[in-house]
Design a protein that fits this description.
- Helix content is 46%, strand content 20%.
- Strand 2 and strand 3 form a beta hairpin.
- It is of the alpha+beta class.
- The chain folds into two domains: 163 residues, Beta-Lactamase (2-Layer Sandwich), CATH 3.30.450.40; 153 residues, Histidine kinase-like ATPase, C-terminal domain (Heat Shock Protein 90, 2-Layer Sandwich).
- The longest helix is centred in the middle third of the chain and has 80 residues.
- Strands 3-2-1-6-5-4 form a six-stranded antiparallel β-sheet. The chain has a five-stranded mixed β-sheet with strand order 8-10-11-13-12.
- The protein is rod-shaped and about 120 Å long.
- It is built from eleven helices and 13 strands.
- It binds adenosine-5'-diphosphate.
């Protein structure tokens, strides 16, 4: 008995069949109805939807046959799939050299007549099986019956195409989910990266103050130069630096936990004054002359004062750093505050070389022109000011230093 040769692109064909995930699935009414109708209309005892797997043909639906599968070597359908666009019709298998000694002809179910219409997948155009009718009597199929069988095969094929489309959609959905997981993971990583950068940037200032103040206290201790007034100021500053560090960590914790910061009515002048006191040590060390030109009456805003102080600290320290190469006698930091219509405006100007990057770039995270910079300070400032429904911008002219302008809505 000559076995049907394997189709040329058999691996692709098998891939298309397996991709449907249909093999060994339970029977389904829609396929069962098709074989029942095929048997009735073609007047045969058996009708099958047969799928040709690697070593077997497996029946998605079978009418008049109990077997769920038979070896591929005996399958008439394995021959039928060689010409995917034509029906294979065997009028009398006993007299057909391809099938005369086939065990399905010489024994149960004693096939004589076979008519099979190949079923082809939509995307790969691969013949994966047939809708076939079988009889144990040699016979013919009328034109009408062949037409009906072809229409039913089209329906079976449509069901398979539907399954194919559903499968593809599920695969795409799965891929989309994977991509979403990956994006979420990258988002978390980038958030973690930003947080690490923010912690190391922001904690630098209070840690520097803590270490410098404690070093001064140590020197005073060694020289036994304790003076009540001076030590209590230094200890006060140490406590301020510790509390500033604590506030930074609280803000970060709240940011990660998505807790909105607590706002209250505060005076911008008071925040600026506290910042000047807080940075007194660094100011003297950097030999910077601070010129305060604050509005005479309180400038009330609805804000989180710790956050606004964080902004001021960042801008002051940037200015100190920018003026590093300027003659000490010319290092000046001008801080002005005023009310303009419904806004409170603060300007911080230095006598450094001015901005080397566009102001947009300066506020972008990780953009820095400093060898040991992180490029986080201004992006943190802009995020905080945005949370206060305000705006922050920078301007500079070469040789005339940089000016940072903050505008906040006046407390109602
Ligand atoms: P970093 O200080 O770590 O560089 P920032 O976000 O605070 O990060 O600043 C970003 C960049 O903006 C700085 O690298 C610098 O080029 C510029 N910049 C910020 N403040 C000033 C200033 N007062 N004068 C000149 N350039 C400044």
């Amino acid at each position: 008995m000559p076995e049907a040769p394997l189709p040329l692109d058999e691996p692709v064909r098998l891939g298309a069949l397996r991709g449907l995930d249909i093999l060994d699935t339970p029977s389904e009414g829609a396929y069962d109805d098709i074989v029942k109708l095929a048997a009735e209309l073609c007047e045969t005892p058996i009708a099958l939807i047969s799928l040709v797997d690697e070593h077997r043909q497996w029946f998605k639906a079978a009418h008049g046959l109990d077997a769920k599968e038979t070896p591929r070597a005996f399958a008439f359908c394995a021959h039928a799939i060689h010409a995917p666009t034509e029906p294979l019709i065997v009028f009398n298998a006993e007299q057909d050299p391809r099938f005369s000694d086939n065990p399905l002809v010489t024994g149960e179910p004693n096939i004589r007549f076979y008519a099979g219409i190949p079923l082809v997948t939509k995307s790969d155009q691969q013949p994966i099986g047939t809708l076939c009718v079988i009889s144990d009597e040699a016979r013919e199929l009328s034109d009408e019956q062949l037409k009906t069988l072809t229409v039913l095969a089209n329906h079976a094929e449509k069901l398979l195409h539907l399954r194919e489309a559903t499968k593809q959609l599920m695969n795409q959905q799965f891929e989309l989910q994977q991509q979403q997981h990956e994006l979420a993971r990258l988002g978390r990583l980038s958030l973690a990266g930003e947080l690490v950068a923010e912690v190391s940037h922001e904690m630098g200032q209070p840690l520097y103050a803590i270490s410098a103040l404690s070093a001064t206290l140590e020197v005073m201790n060694e020289q036994r130069g304790w003076e009540y007034g001076r030590t209590s100021v230094l200890i006060g500053r140490l406590q301020e630096a510790c509390s500033h560090a604590g506030q930074i960590l609280t803000r970060l914790r709240q940011f990660v936990r998505n807790v909105p910061p607590e706002f209250e009515t505060c005076d911008v002048n008071e925040i600026l004054g506290t910042t000047v006191e807080f940075l007194d040590f660094q100011c003297r060390r950097n030999e910077v002359d601070i010129q305060l030109n604050l509005a005479s009456s309180p400038l009330k805003v609805h804000a989180n004062s710790a956050h606004l102080q964080q902004v001021a600290v960042n801008l002051f320290i940037n200015a100190f750093e920018a003026m590093g190469d300027v003659e000490p006698s010319e290092r000046a930091l001008r801080v002005t505050s005023r009310q303009e219509d419904e806004s409170i405006v603060v300007e911080i100007s230095d006598s450094g070389p001015g901005l080397k990057v566009s102001d947009e770039a300066a506020f972008t995270a990780f953009r820095t022109t400093k060898a040991d910079g992180l490029g986080m300070g201004l992006s943190i400032c802009s995020r905080i000011i945005e949370n206060h429904s305000g705006s922050i911008s920078a301007s500079s002219r070469t040789g005339e230093g940089a000016t940072f302008r903050i505008e906040l809505p006046k407390a109602g």
